[in-house]
Specification:
Strand content of chain B: 15-25%
Helix content of chain B: 25-40%
Low-confidence stretches of chain B: none
Number of strands of chain B: 22
Strand order of the largest sheet of chain A: 10-9-8-11-12-13
Structural class of chain A: alpha/beta
Radius of gyration of chain B: 25 Å
Mean pLDDT of chain A: 82
Oligomer: heterotetramer
CATH topology of one domain in chain A: Rossmann fold
Distance between the termini of chain A: 33 Å
Mean pLDDT of chain B: 85
Number of domains of chain B: 3
Radius of gyration of chain A: 30 Å
Largest sheet of chain A: 6 strands, parallel
Number of helices of chain A: 11
Structural class of chain B: alpha/beta
Number of strands of chain A: 13
Low-confidence stretches of chain A: 18-28
CATH architecture of one domain in chain A: 3-Layer(aba) Sandwich
Distance between the termini of chain B: 57 Å
Order of helices and strands of chain A: HEEEEEEEHHEHEHEHEHEHEHHH
CATH class of one domain in chain A: Alpha Beta
Helix content of chain A: 40-55%
Largest interface: A-D, 91 and 68 residues
Number of helices of chain B: 17
Chain lengths: 383, 603, 375, 234
C-alpha cells in the first residue's frame, strides 16, 4: 500500500519536472513558441504591439514550405498580441509573419519568427485534476488499508439494499421470476459496471433461492460479461446446475425497442421483483410504471439525476447516485469495499469545506473587499 | 369445548414438566376463583416408572393431603358428580415431559414462509429443531441428512403463497420423502407431516409424501405474503401432538382419558395465558420462562402474539451454552468482583453436569444470576429477531418516501410501549430476594419508559393457560391474585448523555416518603419503596436528550405501581452501556446493587 | 422435594450389566439367544439408505421441467455410474446435444416433472453393531438387535467425550490424587485404557492420542482444556460422537479433583482386564452418563443391577459435595434436619450435616451432595 | 491464473486510460484511437453473439410452446427480414451493379430497394423508417400517460418535507405553462428560481457524490479490489 502511494508521488513529481522545460523561443520581434499542454499540433505566435501607432488589426501569415511563400492565415483585432495556431504536424518547423493593419489604412510589418510544435507528456492544465485524483486515491487507499487492518467502520443502512434479499424472497414465494435490467448504458459506462456488480450479488441470491432470473440486455458486450458473471455466481454457491444459459439474453440496442421488449416480459411473465440498475434515460418511467402496475417489488438505482423522480415515484426502493456504486460494498460487507466508502465520505467532507470557503470568498468579492480569483483559478480546467 | 363450565367450583390442573409434575387446586370463593393449594412430585416419564400418571397421582396426592379434599379414586383422578364426595369439577393438564414437542419446519424462503412456519410451530408450543428452506444454504443431501439426524416428532411443511411457487414446495416435499423420516417415539407408525403451503401444490405434495408419511393438509399459513394465517396449522399441531406424540409417550393415553380438555404443550399454554392477560387488560406484555434447558419468551405487541424458545439457553443443562454463546466477559461484566476465569469455567461446567445443585455461597449466587441475565438477554435478542412484521410486502410509495425509504420486517417488539414484563422459572421465581429477580429482568430485557415488573410465584402459568382456554375469567382472576408477585414499576429514560449529567427529575407524593422531588443522574439506579397495590401519580421530567414516551426532554405524568420491590428508577440510559474501565464498572455495579438492596453483602 | 439430591453415580464392583445393542434401522441379527459373544463380535447389521444428490436436469438441458421425463435416458429405479449420462437432448437435428450426468454412483430415485430435478441415491451404507461387551446374548429384539448380559464391574462417570471402545485397563498413577501428566503415558499404554488420578492435562491427552491409547479415565478435566481439545466451546452436554481418537471418561467433575478412592481402588483391582468404555454423555431428559464396564468372574457379592433405583439418603450415608465451596469433598451424613435453613446466599433450602473425611463438619444443602453408591 | 490474467489486463488498461487523460502527446492520442478501434472489433463479434442469443431464446420458446411463443415468431421473422433486406441490398449492388435496368416502378423502386445497401431508400431503410421509427415513437409517447398515472398515485403529502416538495413541484409545473397574462411574471420567475438555485444545489450535491462514487468504483476495479465483474467475489 505504502509503495503505491510513493509511486504515485514520484510519478506526479516526474511529470511536473518534465513539464517545466522551456520551449525554444526565438529572440525576434515575433516569437513562435510551442503551445503548451497539447499533442504537438499547435504553436503560439506572439508579437509586440507596435509603439506609437493605432493598429486596426493584425494579419498573420504562415510560410508554406512547398512554395516558400507566406500565405495569410488569419486576421485578429488590433488589441491582440498572440494567436494559437493548431492542426500542425508535430516536430516540423513553421515560420510566421505578422503584419499590422494600421487605423489609417497603412500596413506595417511587425516581424517574422519561426518555431516548432512539439507534443508534451503532461497537460498542466489538468494538474489540479491530477492533484485531486491523487489525493482522493490516497484517501481511499488509506481507508482501505485501515479496513484491512480490521478497524470497524460504520456504514449507514440503505433500505433499498437491505430489501434485496426480501425482494428475491418474495419472488421465490410467489413462484415468479426476477427481472434485472442493467440499464441502457454500454460496457464502458461506469454505471453499467456498477449494475453488473450488483447483478453478481443478486445472481448469487437467486441461485441460493433457486428463483428464475431474467436479464434482458441492450448491449451484446454487457450481455456476454453478465452471462459469465451469473454463471460464476451460480457455480460459487454450489448450484452450477441451476444456471440457465438463456436467462441472460440480448434484446436489441434500440432504446424503445428494448423498452417494448422488457415491458412485454413484465406483462407476460409477471416477475415479482424488478431491478433497474445502471444508466437510464427517458425510458425509466415507462419501465418502472409498467412494473408497478404488474405489482412487482421494484428496486432501482441510477446515477442519472434526471431519472431520480421517476424511479422514486414508481419503485419501492431507489438507490440514488453514489448509492449505486456503494451497493456492492453494502451487499458484500467486504471491509475493503467499506473502506472505500469511508474514503468517499471524507472526500465529500473536503469538497464541502472547499465549497463553503468558496462561497465566503465570493461573498467577500461581492463586497469588493478582496480579490479571490486565485481561489477560483485553482479549480479551473482549461481545455 | 362444547362443555358448560359455568357451574365449576373446583378446578384441578397439572403440568407435567420434564423434571417435576406440578398440580394446583383452584376453588371458587364467592364470586372469585382462588388458588387453594399446590403440590408437586417428580415426573415419571422415564425409567424406571415409565408412566406419566404416577407422577401426576403423586402430585395430586400431595394436593389432596394439603387441601383435605378427596381428589383421587384408586389410581385415577376423581371427577365430582352425584353421590361423589370431593372430586374435581374440571381436570386439565399440560405437558412438556420427554423434551416437549420437537418439530422441524420447512418453508420456501427462510425469512418468509420459513419464518411463518416457525412462528406457527412455536406458537403452538413446539421446540423448532431446524428450519428447512430452499435458501438455507444447504444442499439437498445436507437437508436430508438433517431430517434424519434430528428425528422430529412432526414436520410442518409450508411454502409458497396460494398460486405461488410449486416447484420449491415440491422439492422440499421430495427431500422429506427421500429422507424417509422416522418419528422419535415408537415405531410402526409414520411421521406426521402437516402441509400448510401453496394450495396449488397440494396434489404434488400428496404425490410425494402420502405414501411415506402421515400427511395432513391444512390451509396455507401464508395465503398471500401480506397476511399470515397461523390458526389452522397451530390447531392441527395441537391435534397431532395429542394423537401421535402424546399417545406414544408412556402413560399419556391414560392421562388423556382423565382430562376434560386436550392436553396442551406447556409453552403453548403459557402463551395462552399471556395472550388472555394482554387482551383482557389491553396491554402490551412480555413473559419469559427461564428453565434449565430452554428459555421461552412470549410477547404481545399490538395484539400480535409471538413466542420463541431458545432451546439451548437455560440455567442448568444449557448453562454452558449460555457462556459459550455470550462469552465469559459478558457474564463477568455483571459481577462486582473479579474471579479467575478458569475457575469460573470449571464451575459452570460442573453446574451443567450436576444441574440440580444450588448456590450455597453469595459469590456463587451472584455469578449464577449474572449468567441468568445473559441467558435472558440472549433469549430476548432471539425473540426480537423472530417477532417481526411480515417480510416481502410491496410498498406503496409516495413522494414522502423520497426522504426516507423504510424496509419491511422490522421487529414488533417496542420496549417503549411495553406495559408489563412477567418472569418465571427457577432463576427468577426462586431468587432469594425479589429485588434480585427484578434487577435480572431489568438487566436482561432493558425495559424502556415505564414498565411494570412481576414474577410468577410458583410457575402456575401453564395450568392457568390451559384453563384460560375454557374459563378465561377464572384464569385471569387466579393469575391476578395468586400467580403474580408484583415487583413494582421500573422507570427508564431512553437516551444517552455525558457521564454524571442529570437524567431524570421525579416529583410525586409517595406514601411513607412524603413529597419527593429528586434529580437522578445518568448511570444511577434508585429505589423508591411503594407497597403492593399502592399507586402513585408522578411527574417525570427527563433531561434533554432523554425520552420517556412523550418525546425527548418532554415531561410526562404517569401512574407508578408498587410491589414487593418498589419503584425502580433506572437512569443508566438506553442503549445501556456498562463502563469499560474496571474500577468504574465495579463502582457502578456496587452502586446499583447497594441502592436497590440486592445482596446482603457489599463487595 | 423428597428427591432433591442427585441420585449418585454407580460404582459397583460386581453386578449384572445388560446392554441393548439396537440398530438404527431394522436389519439382520447375526447371533442367537444364548450365544456367548466377545466385545468386538458383530451381533447385528443393516443397510442405511444412501445419501442423495440432486441434479437439475431441466436447467442443464435448458428444458421446461415438464419436458424432463421425455429426455431421460435413465428411468426411475435404474442404476447409474458416476459420470454416466442420465438425460440427453439433441439439438440442431442431432448435430449437437446437451447432456446431464450423474454426480455419483447409485440409482435414480425420482424424476420430477415439477421441479425438473432428479434425485440420485447413493448405494446403501452398511452399518454393523458389535457386542460392545463380552457376555451372553439374553434377548433378541426381532430384527433390530439384541441384549447382551455380562457380570462385572460397572462404573458411571460424570462426563465423557468419545464413543465406545475396548481395551485393557492400566493404572498409570500411583494415587487417586495425582495428576495424570504426559510423562506418565508410555509406549506400553498403546491400545489400553489408562486410569489416572485427579486430572488429565491437555498435553497428556494429546500424547495419549499420539500413542494410540484407547481410553483415559480420570477424576477431573479443565474446561479450558476441553475447549482447546475439542476446538470449540461445548454448549450443550450431548457428547459421544466426537472422533478424537480417544475416549475420555471423567468420574468427578471439572477441575482438579481426586478420583473417588473407591473408584480408583476398584479400577486398580481390575487392572489387566479387558474393559469396555463409552464417553457418551447426555445431561437432559433421558440422562446418559459415560460408563466403564469390566466383565469379570471374580467372586464377590452381587450389587444391585445397573439402572435400578438406588438407596436413600440416611445418617451415615457416604456422600460427596458437588458444589462450591466444598466441591469434591467426601464425607458422611451426620444429620438430616427437617426444617428449611437459610444459606449464605439467603436461599431457604433443606440441608444436611456432613462430616468430611478431613474431619471438618459442615451444613450444606441436600441438593449439593450426591450419594456414593459402592458395592 | 484464470483470475490473475483478466485482473492484470484490467489494471494495465485502466491505468493506461487514466494516464492518457493527463498526457496530451500525440502518442497517447494514437493509442487512444487504437483502443477505440479494438472496441469496435470486439463489439462486432459481440453483436454476432447477441444475435445468436436472441435466436436461441426465441427458438426455445417456439420449440416448447412457452407462453407468448407467438411473439417469438414475430421477433424471429423481424430479425430475418432485417437481415434479408440488409443483405439483399448489399448483394444486389454486387450483382446488379450500379446500372439501372428499367424505368418506372420496377426500375426505380426495386432498383433502389435492392441496390442501395442500407442507404436511404433501400429496403432495409424502408423497414427502419416505416416500421421501427413509428413504433419507437409510439413507445416514447406512452411516457406522457405514465407520467400522469405516476403523479396521480404518488402526489400525496404525508409529511412536511413531502408537502414542500409537492408545493415546489406545482410551482414549477405551473411556471412552465404560459400563464403570464393571467398571473403575471412572478410565477415563471419563481419556477425558474427554484430550478436554478435549490434544485441545482441539490443536483450538484448528488453529482459530486456520483463523481466520487464513480471514481472510487473505477479505482477499485483497476486495483482489483472489486472483482465481481469477473464473476464471484473471491
Amino acid at each position: 500500500m505504502r509503495k503505491l502511494v510513493v509511486i504515485c508521488v514520484v510519478i506526479t513529481g516526474a511529470l511536473l519536472i518534465s513539464g517545466c522545460q522551456e520551449i525554444d523561443t526565438e529572440v525576434s520581434a515575433v516569437t513562435v513558441m510551442d503551445a503548451p499542454n497539447d499533442s504537438g499540433g499547435g504553436v503560439v505566435v506572439a508579437w509586440p504591439a507596435p509603439a506609437g501607432v493605432k493598429v486596426d488589426s493584425f494579419a498573420i501569415e504562415r510560410l508554406d514550405p512547398e512554395t516558400g511563400k507566406y500565405t495569410p492565415l488569419t486576421t485578429v483585432k488590433g488589441d491582440e498580441t498572440f494567436l494559437e495556431d493548431t492542426g500542425l504536424t508535430p516536430n516540423a518547423d513553421y515560420s510566421y509573419r505578422v503584419v499590422a493593419n494600421l487605423a489609417d489604412g497603412k500596413t506595417t510589418a511587425v516581424g517574422e519568427g519561426a518555431g516548432r510544435p512539439t507534443g508534451e507528456w503532461f497537460n498542466f492544465n489538468r494538474l489540479n485534476v491530477l492533484v485531486g485524483v491523487v489525493s482522493f486515491v490516497v484517501l481511499v487507499l488509506v481507508f482501505i488499508s485501515m479496513a484491512r487492518g480490521g478497524k470497524e467502520l460504520f456504514v449507514r443502512k440503505i433500505a433499498g439494499l437491505e430489501a434485496v434479499d426480501e425482494a428475491i424472497g418474495r419472488a421465490t414465494e410467489m413462484g415468479k421470476p426476477i427481472l434485472f435490467v442493467s440499464g441502457l448504458g454500454d460496457a464502458s459506462d461506469i454505471a453499467t459496471i456498477a449494475a453488473m456488480t450488483i447483478l453478481a450479488k443478486v445472481a448469487r441470491k437467486t441461485a441460493e433461492y433457486e428463483t428464475p432470473l431474467i436479464v434482458p440486455c441492450r448491449d451484446p458486450i454487457v450481455m456476454m460479461v453478465e452471462k459469465e458473471m451469473v454463471r460464476e455466481a451460480y457455480t460459487e454457491v454450489g448450484r452450477p446446475d441451476a444456471f440457465e444459459e438463456d436467462s441472460v439474453f440480448y434484446v436489441t440496442d434500440s432504446q424503445f425497442g428494448y423498452v417494448a421488449a422488457v415491458d412485454g416480459i413484465m406483462l407476460r411473465e409477471r416477475p415479482a421483483t424488478n431491478f433497474y440498475m445502471g444508466a437510464f434515460y427517458a425510458e425509466s418511467l415507462i419501465l418502472a410504471e409498467t412494473g408497478a402496475q404488474t405489482g412487482a417489488i421494484q428496486i432501482a438505482g441510477t446515477d442519472r439525476v434526471t431519472q431520480f423522480p421517476f424511479f422514486i415515484t414508481a419503485c419501492d426502493y431507489t438507490l440514488m447516485g453514489e448509492e449505486l456504486y456503494a451497493a456492492t460494498a453494502y451487499l458484500g460487507r467486504d471491509p475493503l469495499m467499506l473502506g472505500s466508502l469511508k474514503g468517499q465520505d471524507w472526500a465529500k467532507a473536503v469538497i464541502l469545506v472547499i465549497l463553503i470557503v468558496g462561497a465566503i470568498l465570493i461573498a467577500l468579492t461581492g463586497l469588493g473587499e478582496v480579490d479571490t480569483t486565485w481561489f477560483a483559478r485553482l479549480f479551473e480546467t482549461v481545455s | 369445548m362444547a362443555q358448560d363450565y359455568s357451574h365449576v367450583k373446583t378446578i384441578l390442573a397439572t403440568d407435567c414438566g420434564s423434571t417435576t409434575t406440578k398440580a394446583i387446586l383452584i376453588e371458587k370463593e364467592g364470586e372469585e376463583y382462588r388458588l387453594k393449594v399446590r403440590g408437586e412430585a417428580p415426573t415419571t416419564v422415564e425409567k424406571p416408572a415409565e408412566d406419566v400418571t404416577r407422577g401426576v397421582l403423586n402430585a395430586v396426592g400431595e394436593v389432596e393431603e394439603l387441601s383435605g379434599r378427596t381428589l383421587l379414586k384408586k389410581v385415577k383422578v376423581l371427577h365430582s358428580g352425584k353421590g361423589i364426595k370431593g372430586g374435581t369439577d374440571v381436570y386439565l393438564s399440560t405437558s412438556s415431559a420427554g423434551g416437549g414437542l420437537q418439530m422441524m419446519v420447512a418453508g420456501v424462503v427462510k425469512s418468509m414462509t420459513g419464518e411463518s412456519a416457525q412462528r406457527a410451530a412455536l406458537g403452538a408450543g413446539a421446540i423448532v429443531m431446524d428450519v428447512l428452506a430452499s435458501n438455507d444454504g444447504r444442499l439437498g443431501h445436507e437437508k436430508i441428512e438433517a431430517i434424519r439426524r434430528l428425528r422430529p416428532d412432526m414436520i410442518l411443511l409450508s411454502g409458497g403463497i396460494d398460486g405461488g411457487t410449486i416447484s420449491h414446495v415440491v422439492e422440499l416435499a421430495e427431500l422429506i420423502g427421500a429422507a424417509d423420516p422416522k418419528p422419535r417415539f415408537g415405531s410402526g407408525y409414520d411421521l406426521p407431516v402437516i402441509y400448510a403451503g401453496n394450495k396449488d401444490a397440494r396434489g404434488n405434495v400428496k404425490g410425494s409424501l402420502e405414501a411415506k408419511t402421515d400427511l395432513y393438509v391444512v390451509d396455507n399459513i401464508r395465503p398471500v405474503l401480506e397476511r399470515e394465517n397461523l390458526g389452522p396449522a397451530r390447531h392441527e399441531i395441537h391435534n397431532l401432538f395429542m394423537e401421535h406424540v402424546m399417545a406414544q409417550a408412556p402413560g399419556y393415553s391414560k392421562l388423556m382419558e382423565w382430562t376434560d380438555e386436550p392436553i396442551m404443550p406447556t409453552p403453548g399454554a403459557v402463551g395462552e395465558i399471556i395472550q388472555t392477560i394482554a387482551s383482557t387488560y389491553g396491554i402490551e406484555a412480555i413473559g419469559v420462562d427461564i428453565g434449565g434447558a430452554t428459555t421461552d419468551v412470549f410477547s404481545v405487541f399490538g395484539g400480535v402474539f409471538n413466542r420463541t424458545v431458545s432451546a439451548n439457553l437455560g440455567m442448568s443443562y444449557s448453562v454452558s451454552n449460555v457462556v459459550a454463546e455470550t462469552g465469559l466477559p459478558n457474564i463477568m461484566r455483571w459481577v462486582p468482583f473479579s474471579v479467575d476465569e478458569r475457575a469460573i469455567r470449571d464451575r459452570v461446567r460442573n453446574k451443567m453436569i450436576r444441574p440440580t445443585t444450588i448456590p450455597q455461597t453469595l459469590e456463587d449466587l451472584i455469578v449464577e444470576q449474572a449468567i441468568a441475565r445473559e441467558a435472558l438477554r440472549l433469549a430476548f435478542e432471539q425473540h426480537k429477531s423472530l417477532a417481526v412484521g411480515l417480510k416481502g410486502i410491496q410498498q406503496q410509495r409516495t413522494i414522502s418516501d423520497a426522504f426516507a425509504q423504510t424496509a419491511t420486517g422490522g421487529t414488533l417488539v417496542n420496549m417503549m410501549n411495553l406495559d408489563m414484563l412477567v418472569g418465571s422459572g427457577g432463576a427468577l421465581s426462586h431468587a432469594p430476594r425479589r429485588a434480585q429477580a427484578g434487577l435480572m429482568l431489568i438487566d436482561g430485557f432493558m425495559p424502556e419508559c415505564v414498565t411494570f415488573l412481576a414474577v410468577d410465584s410458583i410457575f402456575m402459568m401453564p395450568q392457568l393457560g390451559v384453563l384460560s382456554k375454557v374459563m378465561p375469567k377464572a384464569a385471569t382472576q387466579v393469575f391476578d391474585r395468586d400467580c403474580l408477585v408484583r415487583l413494582g414499576s421500573c422507570v427508564a429514560p431512553v437516551g444517552s448523555g455525558k457521564e454524571g449529567s442529570n437524567c431524570l427529575h421525579i416529583e410525586a407524593d409517595f406514601p411513607g416518603l412524603g413529597h419527593i422531588s429528586e434529580d437522578v443522574k445518568l448511570g444511577e439506579m434508585r429505589l423508591l419503596p411503594l407497597p403492593v397495590g399502592e399507586k402513585v401519580r408522578a411527574k417525570l421530567d427527563p433531561a434533554r436528550g432523554f425520552d420517556l414516551g412523550a418525546g425527548k426532554g418532554d415531561a410526562r405524568e404517569v401512574t407508578l405501581e408498587g410491589g414487593v420491590v418498589g419503584v425502580v428508577l433506572d437512569c443508566r440510559g438506553r442503549p445501556f452501556q456498562i463502563p469499560e474501565d474496571e474500577t468504574k464498572r465495579v463502582n457502578a455495579i456496587t452502586g446499583w446493587l447497594q441502592n436497590l438492596d440486592i445482596y446482603p453483602k457489599v463487595f | 422435594m423428597a428427591h432433591a439430591y442427585t441420585p449418585g453415580l454407580k460404582v459397583l464392583g460386581k453386578t449384572i450389566i445388560r446392554k441393548e445393542r439396537i440398530l438404527p434401522l431394522a436389519g439382520e441379527v447375526l447371533v442367537k439367544k444364548g450365544d456367548t459373544v466377545k466385545a468386538e463380535d458383530i451381533v447385528a447389521r443393516t443397510f442405511l439408505p444412501g445419501n442423495v444428490e440432486t441434479v437439475n436436469v431441466a436447467n442443464s438441458l435448458g428444458l421446461p421441467p415438464e419436458e424432463v421425463p421425455k429426455f431421460m435416458v435413465k428411468q426411475e429405479g435404474d442404476a447409474v455410474e458416476e459420470g454416466e449420462v442420465i438425460a440427453e437432448m439433441k439439438q440442431f437435428f442431432g448435430l449437437y446435444s446437451s447432456r446431464a450426468i450423474s454426480p455419483v454412483k447409485g440409482s435414480i430415485e425420482t424424476v420430477s416433472s415439477i421441479t425438473g430435478q432428479i434425485i440420485v441415491r447413493e448405494p446403501p451404507n452398511p452399518v454393523v453393531m458389535d457386542a460392545y461387551v463380552d457376555g451372553k446374548v439374553v434377548e433378541v429384539h426381532g430384527k433390530e438387535g439384541v441384549t447382551v448380559e455380562t457380570t462385572g464391574t460397572f462404573i458411571q462417570g460424570i462426563f465423557g467425550i468419545g464413543g465406545e471402545t475396548q481395551g485393557e485397563i492400566a493404572v498409570v498413577t500411583d494415587s487417586s490424587e495425582r495428576v495424570l501428566a504426559d510423562e506418565d503415558i508410555t509406549e506400553e499404554c498403546a491400545g489400553k485404557i489408562i486410569v489416572g488420578g485427579s486430572l488429565v492435562t491437555a498435553a497428556a491427552l494429546k500424547k495419549a492420542i499420539q500413542l494410540g491409547v484407547k481410553g483415559v479415565i480420570v477424576g477431573g478435566f479443565h474446561d479450558w482444556d476441553l475447549k482447546s481439545f475439542l476446538g470449540f466451546d461445548l454448549g450443550v452436554a450431548i457428547t459421544g460422537h466426537e472422533n478424537l481418537g480417544v475416549t475420555l471418561v471423567i468420574t468427578e467433575g471439572f477441575g482438579d479433583m481426586a478420583m473417588a478412592e473407591a473408584t480408583f481402588n476398584l479400577l486398580k483391582a481390575r487392572e489387566g482386564l479387558q474393559a469396555s468404555i463409552n464417553g457418551a454423555t447426555q445431561i437432559r431428559a433421558g440422562v446418559i452418563r459415560p460408563e466403564i464396564i469390566v466383565p469379570h468372574t471374580e467372586k464377590g457379592k452381587l450389587a444391585a443391577g445397573a439402572g435400578e433405583e438406588g438407596s436413600n439418603l440416611e445418617i451415615g450415608t457416604r456422600v460427596r459435595a458437588i458444589r462450591e465451596p466444598f466441591f469434591g469433598k467426601l464425607g458422611e451424613v451426620t444429620s438430616l434436619p427437617v426444617e428449611l435453613q437459610i444459606l449464605e446466599s439467603e436461599a431457604k433450602v433443606r440441608v444436611l450435616g456432613v462430616k468430611f473425611d478431613d474431619g471438618a463438619e459442615e451444613v450444606i444443602p441436600r441438593a449439593n451432595v450426591e450419594i456414593i453408591e459402592a458395592g | 491464473m484464470r483470475r490473475e490474467v483478466p485482473l492484470f489486463i484490467c489494471f494495465i488498461m485502466g491505468a493506461l486510460m487514466a494516464v492518457q487523460f493527463f498526457v496530451p502527446h500525440q502518442f497517447s492520442i494514437t493509442l487512444y484511437q487504437y483502443m477505440l478501434r479494438w472496441l469496435i472489433i470486439v463489439l462486432t463479434f459481440a453483436m454476432l453473439l447477441g444475435i445468436g442469443s436472441l435466436i436461441k431464446v426465441h427458438s426455445y420458446k417456439v420449440r416448447f410452446k412457452r407462453e407468448g411463443w407467438g411473439y417469438s415468431i414475430v421477433a424471429l421473422i423481424g430479425l430475418a427480414m432485417s437481415i434479408v433486406t440488409g443483405m439483399a441490398g448489399i448483394l444486389g449492388r454486387l450483382i446488379l451493379g450500379q446500372e439501372r435496368m428499367a424505368e418506372g416502378f420496377f426500375g426505380d423502386f426495386l432498383f433502389t430497394f435492392f441496390n442501395s445497401g442500407i442507404d436511404l431508400g433501400s429496403g432495409f431503410m424502408w423497414l427502419f423508417s416505416y416500421i421501427q421509427i413509428p413504433m419507437q415513437a409510439t413507445m416514447f409517447s406512452l411516457l406522457a400517460f405514465f407520467i400522469v398515472s405516476a403523479s396521480f398515485r404518488t402526489f400525496r403529502a404525508r409529511s412536511l418535507e413531502a408537502f414542500l416538495l409537492l408545493i415546489a413541484a406545482i410551482i414549477v409545473m405551473l411556471g412552465r405553462v404560459p400563464l403570464e397574462g393571467i398571473v403575471g411574471q412572478w410565477l415563471p420567475d419563481l419556477a425558474e428560481w427554484i430550478l436554478e438555485y435549490p434544485n441545482m444545489a441539490a443536483k450538484r450535491g448528488i453529482m459530486i457524490g456520483v463523481g466520487l462514487g464513480a471514481m472510487s468504483m473505477a479505482l477499485k476495479i483497476i486495483l482489483g479490489i472489486e472483482r465481481s465483474w469477473l464473476g464471484g467475489t473471491e
